[in-house]
Amino acid sequence: MPQGDWQYDVLRELGVPEQGLTGPTLPRMADPAAQTRLDLPLPPRPTSPGTAAQAPAGPHDHATSWYAPAEPAVHPLTDWHAGHTPVQDSPPGPAEQPPPAEQTVVDPTERAPAAQFYPQAGQAPAAPGPPHPGAQAGPGPLPAPVQPPAPGGEPAARTPYGDPLMRRVGRSVKRAVGTSGAADVRELGEVAERLRRAVPSCRRIAVTSIRGGAGKSTVTALVASVLAGHRDDRVLGLDADSGLGSLPLRLGVAAERSVHDLAGAQPRAWEEAAGYLARSPNGPWVLAAGAGGRLGDELDLGTFQTAAGLLSRYASIAMIDCAAGVNARLQRGILADAHAQILVTPGTVDGALSARGALDWFGRNGLGPLLGRTVVVLVTHTPHIDADLDGARRLLAEGGLPVQHLPYDRHLAVGAAIEEGRTAGTTRTAAARIAVEAFSRSLETA
Questions:
Q1: How far apart are the C-alpha atoms of 276 and 272, rounded to whole Å?
Q2: pLDDT at position 230, please?
Q3: Would you call 348 exposed, middle or buried from its count of C-beta atoms within 10 A (0-12, 13-18, 19+)?
Q4: What is the rounded distance in angstroms from the CA atom of residue 232 to the CA atom of residue 229?
Q5: What is the DSSP letter of 25?
Q6: Which of 146, 171, 264, 395 has the most CB atoms in a 10 Å sphere around its CB?
Q7: Orientation of helix 301-312 relative to helix 329-337, angle to 10°
Q8: Got the DSSP string for 348-369?
Q9: Contact partners, residue 152, CB within 8 Å, separation at least 6
Q10: Which residues of the chain have pLDDT under 70?
Q11: Buried b (16+ CB within 10 A) or exposed e, 236-269
Q12: Which domains does the chain have, with CATH numbers?
């Protein structure tokens, strides 16, 4: 039996008509709707040697459409495309192989008339009909793309909250049902009482750091906001960093006047001086080192002392955000006149070592009395504490100095204006403790 003859015997056993098996190609029907997507030709039936004639192709029978070979056979003397005569009898080389016939695999449970896929010329594709009972539901239409808000339309997204949602909800429930811990209530009462104490004169609290990026302006803004929230008099935030300090940004103001303008104007009343300041939504009044967020002239000690002296008669507390470092003449002059100091350093062992070196420097350069009125603040800048925070705290507390920790806060990490209601509860607690420690020590000197 010639090779491949058994396939045709099996098809005859299944009742497939003989004329449906013989032709190398099958003509398409005139009616496209009766054509299925599996109309692929069957290979020609092998014949015995010496027999070249084949039975003519008859009408196509749909019973044969299930049999679709991967590659339709092509007779050596018959081209794959109708009406084309090959140039040579030998099989074409690799570079001359004709493209394979188009084959499309269709899910047998989802057969549709060919008119849906191959509309006639000038005819729009037919709308899809109801799905086949056995077909699975396909995906729905794609959603419309989200358009960005038009300029000047919706406001930009606000900065994130410092606390996760569940923690904020739990805190709100505790306040609503009055189940806050007695210790928390007592501590809040003590904080308010200590921060409302009267002052003999304007208390100058300098906030310093050994290097930039430690969180000095953030601590200044937080403490100034806490003090302004507990007192009925004025609290100032003085920017002493002429290199584009970020205190006005953190307090949410855009100051158009600078310390140079105030010192040159010499105002004689609060109404005149207030024109050179900006009021923060959190309460403090802010004096910027550079006007309009621009890099201003180098700030010298005399100019700053003049401006601070003019404002001290109208306020109870002045939080001074110093430039990075403590060795410059401006920083040394501010520290010499300060009633208290907040030394800010990263919450790492390296930060603790740097702060310890600065404290030793204070003692050797005539600032030893200020050490007793200094509060050290360790700031965590990442959500994962990889450093030995307890070791850093012990290293700095050996001299008897109070050491406070400001934990990581998602809202503060954005670097934008601080919204008090969005900071974490641990941030507000830490800021209140820092404010109490620094303000209490500022009252220990005249």
A1: 8
A2: 95
A3: buried
A4: 8
A5: S
A6: 395
A7: 30
A8: SHHHHHHHHHHHHHHHHTT-HH
A9: none
A10: 1-158, 161-186, 292-296, 385-387
A11: bbbbbbbeebbbbbbbbbebebbbbbbbeeebee
A12: 201-442 (3.40.50.300)
For residue 112, the model assigns a pLDDT of: 43
Which pTM does this prediction carry? 0.62
Q: Partners of 375 in the beta sheet?
A: 342
Q: Which two tokens stand for residue 52?
A: 């070249």
Strand order in the sheet with 203-209: 278-279, 285-287, 235-240, 317-322, 203-209, 340-346, 374-379, 403-406
Closest CA to 299 of 291, 318, 24, 415: 291
Q: What is the pLDDT of residues 83-100, one digit of tens each?
A: 444 444 444 454 445 555
The backbone torsions φ and ψ at residue 9, rounded to the nearest 5 degrees and listed phi first, read -65, -40
Distances (CA, A) of 98 to 72, 311, 342: 12, 91, 83
Instruction: Determine the Cα–Cα distance for residues 249 and 246; give it in Å rounded to an integer.
Output: 5
DSSP code per residue over 270-290: HHHHGGG-EE-TTS-EEEBSS
The widest CA-to-CA distance across the chain, in whole angstroms, is: 126
SS3 state at 320:
strand
